[in-house]
Design goal:
This protein has 423 residues and is of the alpha/beta class. The protein is built from 12 helices and 17 strands. GO terms for molecular function: glycosyltransferase activity.
Length: 423
């Protein structure tokens, strides 16, 4: 039940965190800069994460939970959600300032029950995830959508997939189908929701609603994305097939083993895994599959909300953009200025060297976006390897591109005045 004073645009953002307090704190700083005017943030975390969240002073809803089960944790967050819309983001992700307002905009259409956006990877530029459907065997199928987005129906055996670190749902609809299934402790949890929720309405894909997802280390992978444990992937795959395609269960282990062995072999050839480590990981995969085949499956029943009051974050809403740009030798001054300005504006810093070094983008925990690389360097993989531009022209080019995702009202973009150029 949604409180009677709630606006249709109100949102509850749920973050699940375990053993990643520093990443969680950075995620929360980015959320505090959202241009959406009215939303709350619910953190479901272990004691260390709760302490980090409390230290931000943001006025969050905090739920203690210290078990390795993301589905159960998300259901706890869903129970606390007071808004009609509930969004999810991972603790090792950071959202662009326009993320939430764009992600929830399609819900103005009454038939939309879910939405999802695009995700950038570790370098802050390349896409980690765009658009896909998922079938009843848990296999993804890429979708092409225009930049302005698309609203799509599901079809028998297929659902539009929402990526777990960038998705939103009508809270009532998600509760009505039983929320997330705790049998999926990790992996395929949102795909299962998509197949159950898909027949209830449409799913919006919003390419310009973007988050950056760094893939921090976890009990299942290293920081360089090398897996350390495949048991939960295997267990969840077995559960998924039992739920949605029991006829495929017989050949499911062989297919999963083939897919994961190919992945592990790439890491082995790159020197990131040994033969013994690959063997151990594949043994764990088979153990996880056996666990998934015997894991208890519950009957789905509507979840109950605890109907709490909405607890909106203070001081959210549109902010001006500020660009600080300079050569690499002005870096310290740029960063000092960015820290000072971050509480009042969406700050983007360009620190470029006179080289062809590739660009990268990251969100600094002090609350600003840092773009680094060479003046002549490549940004998008599909773009030219070299850009022979002057400093002012290069900054203006970058501002035009990134203005699609965050405010970039900036003197350097318009007038060519850069830190470190003073005479």
């Amino acid at each position: 039940m949604t409180p009677p004073d709630a606006s249709p645009d109100d949102a509850s953002v749920v973050i699940v965190s375990r053993h990643r307090a520093a990443s969680l704190a950075r995620c929360l700083v980015a959320l505090s800069q959202q241009d959406h005017p009215r939303f709350e943030v619910i953190v479901v975390a272990d004691p260390e994460g709760l302490a980090a969240a409390q230290a931000t002073g943001l006025g969050l809803k905090l739920v203690g939970f210290d078990q390795p089960n993301i589905s159960a944790a998300r259901n706890l967050g869903l129970a606390q959600a007071a808004a009609p819309l509930v969004a999810f983001i991972d603790d090792d992700a950071v959202a662009e300032a326009t993320w939430l307002s764009r992600l929830v905009r399609p819900f103005h259409l009454p038939d939309v029950v879910a939405s999802t956006g695009f995700v950038r990877g570790r370098n802050g530029i390349s896409y980690q995830w765009r658009a896909a459907s998922v079938d009843a065997r848990g296999q993804d199928h890429p979708l092409e959508v225009p930049e302005e987005g698309a609203v799509l129906p599901s079809r028998p055996g297929f659902a539009v997939k929402t990526v777990g670190t960038n998705c939103a749902f009508r809270a009532a609809a998600l509760r009505a189908v039983g929320g997330f299934d705790p049998a999926y402790r990790f992996y395929l949890d949102e795909a299962d929701v998509n197949l159950r929720l898909g027949p209830q309405g449409l799913t919006a894909i919003v390419p310009l609603a973007q988050v950056h997802h760094g893939f921090e280390a976890s009990p299942r992978r290293r920081a360089d994305r090398v897996p350390t444990d495949l048991q939960e992937i295997a267990a969840s795959t077995a559960v998924f097939l039992r739920r949605h395609a029991p006829e495929a269960l017989g050949g499911g282990l062989a297919l999963l083993r083939e897919q994961q062995k190919a992945r592990l072999d790439r890491h082995r050839k790159a020197g990131r895994l040994t033969v013994a480590e690959v063997t151990a990981l594949l043994k764990g995969l088979e153990q996880g599959w056996a666990d998934g085949e015997s894991r208890a499956l519950r009957e789905f029943a509507p979840l109950r909300a605890v109907t709490p009051d909405l607890k909106p974050l203070a001081d959210t809403g549109p902010r001006p953009g500020l660009v600080l740009a300079g050569r690499i030798w002005s870096r310290r001054r740029l960063l000092r200025e960015a820290k000072l300005k971050a509480p009042q504006a969406i700050v983007t810093v360009y620190s470029l060297s006179p080289t062809p070094r590739r660009h990268s983008v990251r969100f600094d925990p002090h609350g600003f976006w840092l773009h680094q690389g060479g003046l002549f360097g490549q940004v998008l993989r599909a773009g030219p390897r070299l850009r022979l531009l002057g400093f002012g022209a290069r900054i203006r080019l970058e501002c035009r591109y990134w203005a699609k995702f965050r405010p970039m009202d900036a003197e350097p973009c318009r007038e060519g005045k850069f830190i470190g150029d003073e005479t």
